[in-house]
Structure formats: C-alpha cells, structure tokens
Amino acid sequence: MLQIYKSLESGPLVELSLKTLEKGAWINIIDPTPYELKVVSNLTEVEPDFLRSALDDEERSHTDVEDDSVMVLTNVPVCRGKDDYDTIPLAIIVTEDYIITVCLEETPVVAEFNERTARLFRTYKKTRFLFQILYKSATYFLRYLRQIQKISDEIEERLRHDMNNSEILRLLSLQKGLTYFNAAIRSNGAVLDKLLRMRKNTNITPFLKAYEEDEDLLEDVIIENKQAKEMVEMYAKILARLADTFSSIISNNQNLVMKFLAAMTIILAIPTVISSFFGMNVPVPLADNPYGFFYVTLMAGSIAGASAYVLYHRDMF
Known about the structure:
- By secondary structure, the protein is of the alpha+beta class.
- It has 2 domains: 2-249, CorA soluble domain-like (Beta Polymerase, domain 2, 2-Layer Sandwich); 252-313, Methane Monooxygenase Hydroxylase, Chain G, domain 1, CATH 1.20.58.
- It is built from 7 helices and 7 strands, in the order E-E-E-H-H-E-E-E-E-H-H-H-H-H.
- A 7-stranded mixed sheet has the order 2-1-3-7-6-5-4.
- The longest helix is centred in the last third of the chain and has 67 residues, at 212-278.
- The protein is rod-shaped, with a radius of gyration of 34 Å.
- The mean pLDDT is 84.
C-alpha cells in the first residue's frame, strides 16, 4: 500500500498520487508489492535494496548511506494483543527531494503523523521529520513499558491468591516482549549515536540538514531512548525475579503436597497391615474373643493416631 502526503506552507496535509508526486512529499509504504517497490524506486531513484530492507522482520537497526540518499532503519514497538508486545523494522529514507518510510505493517508510530497532527510536522523538513519519527518511536517504547509494568503488577496480585497456569503464561509472554524491546532499544541507541557522528560529515549534510532545533530534538530522542533502555532493563530484572519467585513457590507447594501424601500413605498403611495380620488363615490373638474386632480396630486406630501425631509435629502436614 502506498500513501503519499505533502505538507502545505499554511499547515494542512494533502494527499498526493504517484502521478502528482512533488518534491518535499512523504511516501509511506506499507507491506508493498514488488510492483509498488519498482515504481517508487524509479520515481525517486532510491536503491531497491533500501526499499526492501525493512521487509525482513528480523532486520536489525542500522544506517546506510548512498550517493543520493541516507537510510535509517530502526525497530519500532507494536502491540498485537493484550500481552503480545513485539518490534518491527521501519526504514526511513531521506533523499534530496523526498522522505520515504517503509514497513511490513501499519504501526502506531507512523500512524501518529496524519491530518489531525499535520501542524506538528512538515514533510519537506525531512531531517526534522526523521527525528520526530524516531522520537515518537522512543515515546511508544516508554508507553508500552509502562503498560507492561501495570500488567505485571496485575499478574503478581492474581498469582498471590491463585497459582493459575494462564497467569504464568502471561508472565512469560511479557518476558518475551521485554526481550524484543531490549534488543531493539539497544540497536536503536547505536543508530542514534551514529546519526550524531554523521551530522559532522559534510558529505551527508545535504541530506540531513539540521538546524539548532533539530539538534535539540535529536538530543531529546537520545535521552528518551536511554530512559527506555534503563526501564526495560529494570522491568526485565523484576519480571525475571518474579518468575523465579513463583517458580520457587510452585516447587515448594509441590513438596508440601508430596509430604502430605507420604504422611497419609504411612497413616493409612498401618490399619491395612494390622487388619491383614489378623485376617490371616492361622490362629491369631483375640480370634475367639467376642470383642476381638473392636480391640483390633481400636489398636489400629490408636497406632495410626499416634503416627499422625508424630508426623504432625515433624511438619509432615
């Protein structure tokens, strides 16, 4: 899917087509077909490999520079369900005339830039727009991390009252999401550091023209990314310890059940052994006593009770 927009000097965002493509436009490509990639490549003179780079869902964040374009590939966060957090590559390509974004699916990061928020960005200010996308990605990492914290607190509270398998599986799902976030935030940080160095390269400056406000915005992106990095590391440790704690609790509960079953086996075995002894087809004590059954039952119960008392004081119950 192709979406082409351009900001007017007066502020509004207008939608264009391939036939009416103008300089300063933003081309947003979502899950494109080979034909769409070929058309965009021909119109913008961008290397096809640049356009295809974000279509590998395992692609790591990096930057590439060609003679007429700069590509920043970053991983942005997505939430596909209640506890399903993941990251997906987003390529941002800056040329002399256009800014192009390529992604496998529509993401909330890119969706934030629309007609409603048109006054907050300009498609023809390509460097600032690039930094704004990176900043929005960092803020979404922080937003999702806070959501994960709330969900983990909710799971912890439920597990305190009931060791439910579904809650433990939710905990594992959150841990997986944090692992993806941690890897993405680290690689994004390396890209941001490289962007800082690239700003000093005069060969790249024509494609990344930045003013003082843009430099401040890039610094804000780096600060937000560092905060996200600290948060994801902290939450990952908390969830790991939480999982270890509940694993220990489950193991301890299992041991308690086994102790109880062992104690009950011993207690119930005593009457069985005694009754088996007195039930043998040989002469036994109390065989001719009319109260023999009562005495045998009383003896078995007494020994079982004494055994239960001893086991109780040995914390077998």
